[in-house]
């Protein structure tokens, strides 16, 4: 693929600061990582790139828009942006837009509400986690620690390690180089499509959160301004830990995302936004 001569049609969204480029030009999957790198060189604020296709004649109940991320991972913010882009192209004020994310078994239903011409609030139903387990780490990884483990929430297309203040690893949020090295290594050990570290601060209805996400398929590592799937995973984890429904706001570097999660029903709703920048 000759990117220097390729006319890539793309637009840029701001979903709670997690700047996302969506490409509407057809690009072979094998060429998508290179195309994404090219766009990210041109647009330094972009943290991730997804590729969009539209169904010519979607059957009843089918998804009119499909999304594949450059690294093959699942991204909740990009999913909301894909729904918003379809709404903008179709002249929709809002409503439910199914989005098919390649690699995920069922379409996501994104409920949109138009706030301004190119600005939508969005809520998306997130499937239950595949499982919640512990990432067991080798003895002696931290001085004075005999054994260590971290909660891990495994979802389709992405997994997230949850790190709370009482964890010996919470200080990694202040040591970016070591955090990135460990995340890269853990992702390889787990064989995850994508792995995030969610540093979850103290709080009840509002919890500070700092997300770090590694996508091996696109070879990207970002301290993200917000992470929708990480927010959903943290909400599921808190609900499971409490054994009761939670309604929590995550205060992230560029804004806030809300998650409702009920461990009894497996129902999780993620609330965010999608604003078209260019």
Distance between the termini: 25 Å
What percentage of amino acids are in beta strands? 35-45%
Q: Identify low-pLDDT runs.
A: 139-145
CATH 2nd-level architecture of the largest domain? Roll
Written account of the structure:
- The chain is an alpha+beta fold and 278 residues long.
- The protein has 2 domains: 10-126, Diaminopimelate Epimerase, Chain A, domain 1 (Roll), CATH 3.10.310.10; 131-264, Diaminopimelate Epimerase, Chain A, domain 1 (Roll).
- Helices cover 20% and strands 40% of the residues.
- Strand 6 (108-116) and strand 7 form a beta hairpin.
- The radius of gyration is 18 Å and the shape is globular.
Describe the secondary structure blueprint for this structure.
Blueprint: E1 10-14, E2 20-23, H1 32-42, E3 48-54, E4 65-69, H2 76-90, E5 94-101, E6 108-116, E7 119-126, E8 131-137, E9 148-155, E10 158-163, H3 176-190, E11 195-200, E12 206-215, E13 220-223, H4 228-242, E14 246-252, E15 255-262, E16 267-276
Parallel strand pairs: 2-3, 4-5, 10-11, 12-14
Antiparallel strand pairs: 1-2, 1-16, 3-4, 5-6, 6-7, 7-16, 8-9, 9-10, 11-12, 12-13, 14-15, 15-16
């Amino acid at each position: 693929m000759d990117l220097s001569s390729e006319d890539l049609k793309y637009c840029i969204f701001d979903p709670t600061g997690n700047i996302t480029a969506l490409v509407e030009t057809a690009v072979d999957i094998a060429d998508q990582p290179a195309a994404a790198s090219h766009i990210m060189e041109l647009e330094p604020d972009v943290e991730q790139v997804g590729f969009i296709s539209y169904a010519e004649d979607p059957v009843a109940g089918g998804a009119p828009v499909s999304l594949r991320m450059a690294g093959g991972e699942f991204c909740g913010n990009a999913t909301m942006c894909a729904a918003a882009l379809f709404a903008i192209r179709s002249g929709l004020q809002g409503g439910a837009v199914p989005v098919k994310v390649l690699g995920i078994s069922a379409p996501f239903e994104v409920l949109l509400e138009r706030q301004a011409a190119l600005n939508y609030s969005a809520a998306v139903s997130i499937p239950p986690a595949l499982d919640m387990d512990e990432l067991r780490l080798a003895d002696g990884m931290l001085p004075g620690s005999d054994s260590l483990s971290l909660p891990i929430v495994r979802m389709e297309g992405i997994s997230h390690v949850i790190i709370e203040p009482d964890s010996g690893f919470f200080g990694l949020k202040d040591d970016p180089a070591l955090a990135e090295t460990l995340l890269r290594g853990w992702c390889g050990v787990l064989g995850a499509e994508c792995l995030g570290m969610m540093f979850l601060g103290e709080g009840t209805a509002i919890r500070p959160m700092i997300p770090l996400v590694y996508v091996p398929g696109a070879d990207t590592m970002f301290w993200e301004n917000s992470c929708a799937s990480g927010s959903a995973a943290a909400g599921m984890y808190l609900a499971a830990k409490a054994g009761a429904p939670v309604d929590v706001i995550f205060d992230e570097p560029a804004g806030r995302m809300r998650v409702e999660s009920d461990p009894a029903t497996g129902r999780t709703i993620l609330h965010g936004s999608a604003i078209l920048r260019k």
